[in-house]
Design brief:
Elements: E1 14-18, E2 29-32, E3 40-45, H1 54-63, H2 65-70, E4 73-79, H3 83-90, E5 106-108, H4 113-117, E6 121-122, E7 127-128, E8 130-135, E9 141-147, H5 155-167
Parallel strand pairs: 3-4, 4-5
Antiparallel strand pairs: 1-2, 1-5, 3-8, 6-7, 8-9
Length: 184
């Protein structure tokens, strides 16, 4: 499979996840792209657990999880770490660079296959760039942004883009909910 392409079906995946309420004995259930059919999916990749920029993004998305849910969207974070590392990080306090409990699962792409399919894998380092993908309820990739390791993503912008996609219309630069769409 080639890289993910906007306007095309999103590359399929099945990965083990750590969920917020998991224990070491229950961690590792699987999720697939098909599990999100009928809902929007915010799929994002980050380099590694227990790093510095990553928890700021992950907790920011978690803190606004209800807003995504109200828009019919789920969130799935992905890194090349194991589900056990994810679980330990979820249970680590926020004031110590942990996640302190988040509201959505983190998936383990330990084989690096999904990161490769989505075009975010830095092969020589074995980690992912910061990639964020919005997949529509039919499994079509509608939005993709990839940036370098040192720059965190904006939760506000992710929500804005999701809302713009959901209008089905032409959204001008800096469009926000409540603003007019372009007419032709």
């Amino acid at each position: 499979m080639g890289y993910a392409r906007v306007g095309q079906p999103a590359p399929d995946f099945t990965m083990a996840v750590a969920r917020p309420d998991d224990t070491p004995k229950t961690v590792g259930s699987k999720v697939s792209l098909s599990d999100y059919r009928g809902r929007w999916l915010i799929l994002f990749f980050y380099p590694l657990d227990f790093t510095f920029v990553c928890p700021t993004e992950i907790t920011a998305l978690s803190d606004r999880y209800e807003e995504f849910q109200e828009l019919g969207a789920d969130i799935l974070g992905v890194s090349v770490d194991s589900v056990y590392s994810h679980l330990a990080w979820m249970n680590h306090p926020r004031d110590q660079h942990g996640l302190g409990g988040i509201r959505y699962p983190l998936a383990s792409d330990i084989t690096k296959e999904v990161s490769r399919d989505y075009g975010v894998l830095i092969e020589e380092e074995g980690i992912a760039l910061r990639g964020l993908f919005i997949i529509d309820p039919d499994g079509v990739l509608q939005y993709a942004v990839i940036n370098n390791l040192n720059i965190g993503r904006s939760t506000d912008e992710t929500l804005r883009v999701l809302q713009a996609l959901q209008t089905g219309g032409l959204c001008p630069s800096d469009w926000k909910p409540g603003k007019e769409l372009l007419t032709v």
